[in-house]
Amino acid sequence: MQIVHSIVSWYMKQRLFEIEKFVEQPLETQSATFNHLIEKGQTTKFGQQHHFKKIKTETDFKASVPLMRYENLKPYVDAIMQGEQNVLWPDKIGWMAKSSGTTSDKSKFIPVSADTLENCHYRAARDVLAVYCRNYPDSQLFTGKGVILGGSHQVSQLNNNIRFGDLSAVLLQNMSNLGRFLSSLDLDIALMDKWESKIERMAEKALQQKITNLSGVPSWMMVFLKSILEKTGANNIKEVWPHLELYIHGGVSFTPYKSQFQQLMGQPINYLQTYNASEGFFALQDLPEADDMLLMLDLGIYYEFIPLDELDNEHPKSYDLSQVTLGENYAIVITTESGLWRYVLGDTVQFTSLNPHRIIVSGRTKHYINVFGEELMVDNTDKALAQACAQTNASIRDYTVGPIFMETQNTGGHEWAIEFENAPENIEHFTQLLDQHLQAINSDYEAKRYNDMALKAPKIHALPKSSFYNWLKQKGKLGGQNKVPRLSNSRKYLEEVLVLT
Question: What pLDDT is stored for residue 254 in this prediction?
Answer without folding.
Answer: 83
